[in-house]
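Q: Hi! First time doing this. I have a protein sequence and I read that you can turn it into a structure. Is that right? Here it is:
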Amino acid sequence: MKVARFTGLGSKVRSSCIVGTLLLGALVGVATLPNTAALADGPDRANIRVMTQNTYVGSDYQAIVDAKTPAEFAAAVTLTYQQILASDPKARAAAVAREIVRNRPDLVALQEADILRTGAAPATNVQSDQLKALLAALRAQGQPYQPVAIVPELDAEYPSTLGFDVRISARNVILARVGRVRVSNLQAQTFAVNQVFQSAVGSITFRNGWTSVDAVVGGRAFRFVTTHLESSPPFTTQLAQARDLVASAANTRLPVVFAGDFNTTANDPQNPTFPTYQFLLDSGFVDAWAKKNPGNPGFTCCQAPDLRNPVSALITRIDLVLFRGGFDVADVHRVGDSQSDRTPSGLWPSDHAGVVATLRLPDRGHGG
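A: Yes, that's right. Below is the predicted 3D structure, encoded as structure tokens:
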């Protein structure tokens, strides 16, 4: 689970999930599918198009954060479950699929592509599966993508007031466009430093991490990484995770692309999360949005928790595409932030806008 509102931050604060009695541990059980895609010919061979999208589970989890007693906590679990269902994850997944089809990214980084389950522990009755719904919508629109990395972070399961447990399985995912990309060398890691929250039912540890693949397009190789950094204070945790990310995921001679929900406010140097963004730049990474759109704030977060705000409420930029190693930026733009992107019932596809960047690949031989 992921979100809480904290006074004075000016934006929503995110965590990957609330730890229940069932844990997946340090990113064990990483799932991959074999990639048999052949490289495409044509004028786009010198470019790579990437997208990052936090798909949003459908609740900000504020009731869980606010609960003061175990009874209040169980009621909050019920409310959270109802909020997720009311957000219509399947329709929103179809809206995200439309964004992908329009932009045809070669690689897609997804955060919060979660599964909602109910039942007795361990709960197994699937109520929504955002990744499954997204893949089905892509197939229906004639654009097959395949997951090349599905990284479970943690399971969160607690009793509700409805007579059953509610379970959230948080996942970050990398998708590859069939027929365009070859991938290898899947890696995944949990950050060494994670946040602990004292809830009404005991300590809850937030665990975040990263996953990567080495990709080849047009005969040129690079590493593609997605992550979802911690967001709640103290922000030293987030900064420690960013240091871990650079030291581990970026430990390669290949050019590197980071794409994800970094929870660092790139557009506001006064924000307490800005040191994380500055650290990434100081580590040699270039912000694709800032390079192509200087002076444009490019807000990506956040719509109302129920996604029904009539006018876009994006006020901060925390979803980033960063690169190191010889790339140039041909184009970068947001998706999912226009009225026409909403579902038929008027929901925004996510509380985040997505970011699509077209990068010119380094010359052959650059970076190994």
